[in-house]
Amino acid sequence: MHPIKTALCSFGMSGWVFHAPFIKAHPGFSFYAVWERSKQSAKQKFPDVITYTSYDDLLADKEVELVVVNTPNYTHFDYAKKALLGGKHVIVEKPFTIKTEEAKELIELAKQSGKMISVFQSRRYDSDFKTVKKVVDEKLLGNIVEAEIHYDRFNELLSPKVHKETPGPGTGVLYDLGSHLVDQALQLFGMPDAVFADLSIIRPISKVEDYMEVLLYYPNLRIRLKASYLVREALPSYILHGSKGSFIKSRADVQEGCLQASVSPDVADWGVEPKSEEGILHTEKDGKIIRAHVSTLHGNYLEYYNGIYEAIRNKKQPPVTAEDGLNVIRIIEAAYKSNDEKRVINL
Q: What is the mean pLDDT of residues 91-98?
């Protein structure tokens, strides 16, 4: 393999937890550079990495092939645009952009420049979601008529990341956790016909939305997406009902916890959930009613980087396309409009 020299736009949690370990572990990539204005955090973990204090200087380095834009949401468009104009391939953290117009401009710019652009939707590669998708794809529930996807937490305190708690473009639970849920719904069921949303602030100290409920309307299907920061006793994260039966699954992917504990993703049992977290399938199969646990697939964020390597070196479609990212923003914008106008928004 000819390693792709990769640069990160920051080395906060997303940098050292979700990107650097996989870039380091994958033989097709080289963790080459990082943009850090003042700290030298990356060098403490990766002594060979080059640190740039200026984004322009990083982009001027001809050795850099791929730039990962893992900065605050409101910067995604500007930084991704500069990287494309600088002749780099680009990965943008979710959410892709704040506005659909920005997403469309990046898509067009990537086409003009002949460079790859992809959105980092890591939760597609969680063990729980991969298992849910397998159940849906194999039609084990018949025709799905109703589904709920939750991403709940219990945290009365504000995030230490000030940009996440300061009102402004791209803040709030819908852009943060909600972009994962919307992407998963679209992967399972495609674009809906209409959207209804209820967004609010439920923690007394919060200044941005920390509760969301979004309803996606399909011709014969309703999908409910929920996230809240005040759920101490969580419900199952995936609840699906179909014409033949139901499937219920917890959110139990272990990868993030392992990465925070500095476990390398190239270990043999990477992404293996505890057996106790297996989902429950209650359905009809071959004329018989069955109720049984379903073995959970292994989670692996490295699969995303496998796809990125193929996209850059072998000109294949990125594992998450920019169009996928655009569709998520279309839903988010419709949800905000629905919440403001208190009505269903047709797409």
A: 98
